[in-house]
Automatic annotation (TrEMBL):
One of its GO terms (molecular function) is actin filament binding. WD repeats lie at residues 76-118, 126-168, 170-211. SUPFAM superfamilies: WD40 repeat-like. It comes from Pan troglodytes (Chimpanzee). PROSITE patterns: WD_REPEATS_1, WD_REPEATS_2, WD_REPEATS_REGION. InterPro entries: Coronin, DUF1899, WD40/YVTN_repeat-like_dom_sf, WD40_repeat_CS, WD40_repeat_dom_sf, WD40_rpt. Residues 3-67 form the DUF1899 domain. One of its GO terms (biological process) is actin filament organization. This is Coronin. Belongs to the WD repeat coronin family.
């Protein structure tokens, strides 16, 4: 007998906004007209682009700092023009990149416990774009590889560790780039552009692997993202201005695998994808809802699950990586919805009766460890993300910041003349092998010192406890 309803463990996923006291209040969210998400989240911090007079700024708040945010709260404010996009480094929860209207990309190191003073000095300034930089995206598996795309229609891939632009794709797009997405192992990127084309590009060979003209025929902005299986998911508009979503196979872009029309709203649909559950969440800018779909191998391939609706329209949206979720509550996604004056977390949950760890909801997920060094990736190596289990929850490593940047400048604050040095760094580096070895040695020594300190502290603690025990026994 044929089943009427498709079976799926995600059929009953439901969204719930947190209580008021768990929101971040009194934040002046940026009003700049740009279709990025304005918010970036990781298991330690939430970063939000805000209104700033005389330049561009964003807030970085520890996740627990809910409630009203004081107007004098320190910001990250080194840009001379509005900030358009921010992205947390997937391999270090204290490193964030920002792109701005001032044509630069800046990389910042946030102190472990958050900001106590405003941060004006980035670790490195990446200069190479001739117009505003609207997109920044870290490589998913290689350490310190950062992509930026600007309104000069160029994509630049940087080695943040040396401050140099190693790949410049400046002749592939004839019009504005709406978004860029890395694939799972970071060997390819896909882009959506104002010329209505979706392109799949091999950045190291600097060639277009596949492209589709008029992926969506409407004139309004499109988005394209890679899925874990290598297919490309796009959102856009039809000629009649209806919002559409589509699924494509890059090996054959003639016809979409699936194409669905949704509604006639005019907000750009921002897609957020979870490779572990194959769920895509669509958040329209200016909408007051989040729609979510499951991607499967069987027709119609893109299955509508449900909609989370609220009263207030969203100005932007942050999406928590899987390792930042509460596995004990069967939480499979957490969004940070930006209103005009606040940021409201929204939790997506699969209803389950059992309190046990649900391993079908939480397969091993991408962890914070980089699979490759920047140099290995630029030389042509690929590697899938290093996976971690969430069975006992994710505990951020105490000394992870020591591993930040072996041969990099990320863990030392720049001095006044450091910026000038950045341009000449690559030329000086004649013997990278010895620099690498020195950096490795340095890192090992730091780690040994850290472990010794910990042992000393524990020794002291043990002797104190023994004294207490002796007193009690006496």
């Amino acid at each position: 007998m044929r089943r009427v309803v498709r079976q799926s463990k995600f059929r009953h996923v439901f969204g719930q906004a947190v209580k008021n006291d768990q929101c971040y209040d009194d934040i002046r969210v940026s009003r700049v007209t740009w279709d990025s998400s304005f918010c970036a989240v990781n298991p330690r911090f939430v970063a939000i682009i805000i209104e700033a007079s005389g330049g561009g700024a964003f807030l970085v708040l520890p996740l627990h700092k809910t409630g009203r945010i004081d107007k004098s709260y320190p910001t990250v404010c080194g840009h001379t023009g509005p900030v358009l996009d921010i992205d947390w480094c997937p391999h270090n929860d204290q490193v964030i990149a920002s792109g701005s209207e001032d044509c630069t990309v800046m990389v910042w190191q946030i102190p472990e416990n958050g900001l106590t003073l405003s941060l004006t000095e980035p670790v490195v300034i990446l200069e190479g774009h001739s117009k505003r930089v609207g997109i920044v995206a870290w490589h998913p598996t290689a350490r310190n590889v950062l992509l930026s795309a600007g309104c000069d229609n160029a994509i630049i891939i940087w080695n943040v560790g040396t401050g140099e632009a190693l790949i410049n794709l400046d002749d592939m797009h004839s019009d504005m780039i709406y978004n860029v997405s890395w694939n799972r192992n970071g060997s390819l990127i896909c882009t959506a552009s104002k010329d209505k084309k979706v392109r799949v590009i091999d950045p190291r060979k600097q060639e277009i692997v596949a492209e589709k003209e008029k992926a969506h025929e409407g004139a309004r902005p499109m988005r394209a993202i890679f899925l874990a299986d290598g297919n490309v998911f796009t959102t856009g508009f039809s000629r009649m201005s209806e919002r559409q979503l589509a699924l494509w196979n890059p090996k054959n872009m003639q016809e979409p695998i699936a194409l669905h029309e949704m509604d006639t709203s005019n907000g750009v649909l921002l897609p957020f994808y979870d490779p572990d559950t194959s769920i895509i969440y669509l958040c329209g800018k200016g909408d007051s809802s989040i729609r979510y779909f499951e991607i499967t191998d069987e027709s119609p391939y893109v299955h509508y699950l449900n909609t989370f609706s609220s009263k207030e329209p969203q100005r932007g949206m942050g999406y928590m990586p899987k390792r930042g979720l509460d596995v004990n509550k069967c939480e499979i996604a957490r969004f940070f919805k930006l209103h005009e004056r606040k940021c409201e977390p929204i939790i997506m949950t699969v209803p389950r009766k059992s309190d046990l760890f649900q391993d079908d909801l939480y397969p091993d997920t991408a962890g914070p460890e980089a699979a490759l060094e920047a140099e290995e990736w630029f030389e042509g190596k690929n590697a899938d993300p290093i996976l971690i289990s969430l069975k006992h929850g994710y505990i951020p490593g105490k000394n992870r910041d020591l591993k930040v940047v072996k041969k990099n400048i990320l863990d030392s604050k720049p001095t006044a003349n450091k910026k000038c040095d950045l341009i000449s760094v690559p030329k000086k580096t004649t013997d990278t092998a010895s620099v690498q070895n020195e950096a490795k040695l340095d890192e090992i020594l730091k780690e040994i010192k850290s472990i010794k300190d910990t042992i000393c502290n524990q020794d002291e603690r043990i002797s104190k406890l023994e004294q207490q025990m002796a007193k009690i026994a006496a």
